[in-house]
Aminopeptidase N (Halopseudomonas bauzanensis), 884 residues
Amino acid sequence: MRTEQPTTIHLTDYRQPDYLIDETHLTFELFEDHALVHSRLAMRANAAGEGGALPPLVLHGQDLVLQSVALDEQALTADAWQVDDSSLTLQPQAREFELAITTRIEPQNNTALEGLYKSGGMFCTQCEAEGFRKITYYLDRPDVMSRFTTTVMAERGSYPVLLSNGNLIASGEHEGGRHWATWEDPFPKPAYLFALVAGDLYRIDDSFTTMSGREVELRIYVEPENREQCGHAMDSLKRSMRWDEEVYGREYDLDIFMIVAVNDFNMGAMENKGLNIFNSSCVLAHPDTATDMAFQRVEAVVAHEYFHNWSGNRVTCRDWFQLSLKEGFTVFRDAEFSADMNSRTVKRIEDVTFLRANQFAEDAGPMAHPVRPDSYMEISNFYTLTIYEKGAEVVRMLHTLLGAEGFRKGTDLYFERHDGQAVTCDDFIAALEDANEADFTQFKRWYSQAGTPVLQVDGRYDAASSTFQLLCRQSCPATPGQTEKLPFVIPLRLALLDGEGREMPLQLAGETQARGTETVLAVTEAEQLFVFENVREEPLPSLLRGFSAPVKLVYPYSRDDRVFLAMHDPDGFNRWEAAQSLAVDVLQGLIGIHQAGRPLLLDQRLLEVHRAVLKDDSLDPAMVAEILRLPSEAYLVELAEEADVEAIHHVRDWVRRELATALAETMWSRFRQLGDGAGAYRADAESMARRSLRNTLLGYLMLTESSEALSVCVQQFVEAGNMTDRQAALVALVNSPHEQQKHAALEEFAQRWNAYPLVMDQWFSIQAASPLPGGLERVQGLMKHPAFTLRNPNKVRALIGAFANQNLANFHRADGAGYRFVADQIIELNRLNPQIASRMLTPLTRWRKFDEPRQLLMKAELARILASDDLSPDVYEVVSKSLA
Ligand code: TRP
Ligand code: ZN
């Protein structure tokens, strides 16, 4: 852990590196109580700094024991270099030289899971963003790209598999039961893409023939007991490879592509060149143990990491301020892939729901930052929803503005122009502009201005002139360090619906003919008027279709308008959106009534929309499930000026019960019609949609507290042929008042699956998220469960993360005990794993959203964390910014 106060790094301070590293030769000697890392670097002064004396060479390094340094094969004495907490400095004597360094590290004690560490019995690495400096002294920055050759040496019995990036070029035996393997990666890469794995792993083999006819070996490495759970990841990989060829013309480049699954991992997965390392939760999927959601996550993450081979590896980032260059683009790519593989509309609904509940909250909070941040203290804190999800929305808008063909011309030029380079978001935009003769000067404000814009639209119909005027106003709230915002370019996809819900022809004033029945307007001014002509009757506009921009849309729809759109909008996404916004409106109204102490009465229109949707066989069942699922508590908190935790929880729960009671008959008949869930499990979109609706209905039916629902639920729990159905039944039981059945089910589940860590994560999560009273005590009890450990990030997320993020009622207990508990865990995690500690802080940083007593309690816990010893830069940055 660094001891000095972390400093702030600014984008405007970017300078080219003084030195470059043409070749990197690494040798790892792995032992149980330490590892030796020998590096030999072929270096040269960067031509950009030519002339004058050679500058000192400052290498990054952290938590290393330096054992030796040699310049051009001359060992240096300790007076020839300076070492501190974070660097090694020495003075080169020539423009080109070879630097050899040996460091000693202790992977077995590395609980931060950054650099070289042990997970279970295996050695593995995580170098993004700045983990390589915990392996050896190096120029650990993405604009220094080098060709790597890596030799791994270890004991053969425990570590029969030795892997690194690229191709295996040699291997052999050593005395004393040790062996070695040498890997060579022909593609220059920054250190953050370096990877090494050594362990006792089972290998699943497959192959892929690329579009030019080259054969690529595909391998997934897992612990032997997981060998049956890799089929879905392998299929997803092959589909991703084909899709990137078809949609982007991008072919894989090495002869081998490897994925390794590890249990202890800070994030989802990592795109190391030719050797992706995955959190096992994003690889393993078997119908008996993984839910449909897990299957979809595996597919998406495999695709995401694979797509990075072009958007991230072949073309990488110049500096970490450009992180969204690879992440936003790659999330957009994986979202489009998932949309093509499954239901496009449902995928979009899921992503928009997630963005609005979470990224909007981030954008309105103390850590708000632009898609391309101006400054940071700890880069690990900037792997955010803004960089990833909002970044993807920005790329999506570019795709919308250019059209699929224009966008493809732009990405072709981008990859061609910058292959092998480390570039910026501006370079990406320039390629799209140059390929399309477009001008994105104003559009680029999406990269520099933080905050969620509000787009206020008003419509006025004039029957006499048959015109419809659309007045658009945009504004953007202040965010930390940014008070004045300039107008964005907001692509507004829309249609105008007639009284039957049909789309009418769209002809803008000044145009000689209609442009079709759906169009994209570019809103570029703070205030802007669009006039449609030849509009034969008063229309109802269907706005921001497909969520064409990450903004908050305000339009003065009446509840009847929303009902109409929910029933008739030909656009599936906007049908859902109308039902959703109707539900938001109803819930917000009831929250006010509840606060005023008046009795609750449900607007029958919400009920009728749900009834109609339930009876509509032409709708995708997954869509029906999405509509029935009311806006989340988290989203209602986000929308509130001051969130009333008790009222939000009470009212949402009450509405769910009202719907269940009133629609019980319709729900039962649809539930039965969807089949009993038996029959062979299939992971296709259609089967998943069926299970999704059926289990949503089971959740509702259990709210009626009928004995029939209980027995159907218990039966489903016992007899389910897959984890999706079993888990849905468990969730319903855990959230029910049926103590005996609940405990029996939890007990049975834990007994049966205790050897499956990922299933136990679900078991922890379901209980941690249960809103029933006494939640904190239950979570505290579970912390002592033998399957729980603070050292495994998945366990921390499953128990503490689920409690703090998905259990509004219990986390926000009025006495502050929920906050105190989470703060205690953060203080403990700060010592073990600063990245995870920092992530667990998010719910506490949202204190401004709540009532004053809660604000005080939350701030007190943040202050207590800030005052604790040995604060990591990760935790320090988030806590200090959220208290500022
Ligand atoms: N580049 C990874 C991705 O696919 C992100 C990542 C994986 C990461 N592991 C990490 C970032 C650890 C920071 C720390 O999105
Ligand atoms: Zn990524």
